[in-house]
């Protein structure tokens, strides 16, 4: 990712970087989807994928409780991407290899989100 003179703390989070990269993978994949899907599966998949990083960034600036909640939203968006990827595979918009890679990345992100939520929850409860 490009470095800026104006840096935000959340940009140092590995989870944010991975989420940003995943959003770009999905953006590239959805460019191949049929035009009639532009306002349907294409839009839904891109919004869900981008929502992961957006929730991480938005939540990181608040309290631990707020961040925990935003990470929950990111987790839900990641799981929404599983359904979107499955639909894309069923409709022959992506290959089984692309679906498998999407699932690998979503699994990685989900584990990272779950781990970070647990760490934050411990801080909240102490």
Describe the structure concisely:
75% of the residues lie in helices and 0% in strands. The protein contains four helices and no strands.
Q: How would you explain this protein's 3D organization?
A:
- The protein is mainly alpha-helical and 126 residues long.
- It has a single domain, classed as Up-down Bundle (de novo design (two linked rop proteins)).
- The chain is built from 4 helices and no strands.
- It is globular and about 50 Å long.
- It starts with 13 loop residues before the first helix and ends with a helix.
Looking at this protein, list some descriptive labels.
126 residues; mainly alpha; de novo design (two linked rop proteins); 75% helix
Query: What's the level 1 CATH class?
Result: Mainly Alpha
Global outline: globular
Structural class by sheet pairing and helices: mainly alpha
Radius of gyration: 15 Å
How do the SSEs run, as a string of H and E? HHHH
Strand element count? 0
Q: In angstroms, what separates the terminal alpha carbons?
A: 35 Å
User: What name does the CATH topology carry?
Assistant: de novo design (two linked rop proteins)
Q: Indicate the mean pLDDT.
A: 96
Query: What is the CATH superfamily classification?
Result: 23S rRNA-intervening sequence
So how many helices?
4
Helix content: over 70%
User: Which stretches of 5+ consecutive residues score pLDDT under 50?
Assistant: none
State which percent range the strand residues make up.
under 5%
Domain count, please report it: 1
């Amino acid at each position: 990712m490009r470095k800026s003179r104006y840096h935000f703390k959340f940009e140092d989070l590995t989870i944010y970087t991975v989420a940003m990269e995943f959003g770009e993978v999905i953006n590239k994949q959805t460019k191949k989807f049929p035009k009639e899907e532009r306002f349907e599966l294409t839009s839904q998949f891109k919004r869900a994928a981008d929502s992961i990083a957006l929730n991480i960034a938005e939540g990181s600036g608040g309290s631990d409780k707020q961040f925990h909640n935003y990470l929950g939203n990111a987790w839900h968006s990641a799981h929404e991407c599983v359904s979107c990827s499955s639909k894309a595979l069923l409709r022959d918009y992506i290959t089984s290899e692309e679906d498998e890679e999407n699932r690998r990345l979503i699994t990685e992100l989900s584990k990272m989100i779950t781990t970070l939520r647990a760490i934050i929850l411990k801080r909240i409860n102490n």
